Amino acid sequence: MQNPAIGNVADTTASDFAELPATASHGPLRIEYRWVNAAAGNAPIAVFLHEGLGSVTMWRDWPQALCERLGMRGLVYSRPGYGLSTPRPHDVKWPADFMTAQARDILPALLDALCIDMRERRRMWVIGHSDGGSITLLYAALYPEELAGAVAIAPHVFVEDISVESIAQTRQLYETTDLRSKLGRYHADVDSAFYGWNDIWLNPAFRQWSIAGELTSIRKPLLAVQGHDDNYGTMAQIDTIAAHVPHAQLVKLDACGHSPHRDAPQPLNKAIAAFVLKDGVA
Q: Which sequence ranges form a coiled-coil region, renumbered to this chain (predicted)?
């Protein structure tokens, strides 16, 4: 199938691009990013990490609204393979540790490219959703002193049957309905985005994936949020976080599915603001 043209991607005009040099783990990358709430001047930065099918534009206005409430600047970006960032070559499969590579290599390289120094990083909050929530946890574990705190929204800590079943259903919808064309509004190469995510999650070898043991390295404040009606994961995900990070705070939202920033933005924003501002950001 032919990929949608870049011109069809929703609202591309506000994006900027960072060039990341090649490393042992990846080739040269062009990363789409945007600053939000730039009027906050020298306020701390909130970095937003999107879900497995997300991008800069799929966040819509939620990062802006949250940053205004927190009095922070926001950095949103499309991970490699998503949005207008360098697409995943169609013959390349994400490895089982792809989220670790994103936390260990890509995010720090982007921060370097944007000249966000160590002083700024120590004031920085990392906020991630779904796969982005897992990457948030991994970054907080790998670089425990290079952030002020973290918020993981509907993160994956290990693989559950409900996750695999829902992801398999999403593949069927992608291949039989208009889901592909809808997602094409947010990705220059929609197949790169979809199959990169879908293939690894449906790979039988990925069933053994878990980052639970790595969470014990997290030192900074951590908020973990999950909806009771999430069809991609159960409360066992954030309960596992609490078991490995005793200082973590959990929020369990009623009438909320896998995307709290869309399903329950008001209680989510209230919970994040209460947690972040309590820790002296504002």
A: none
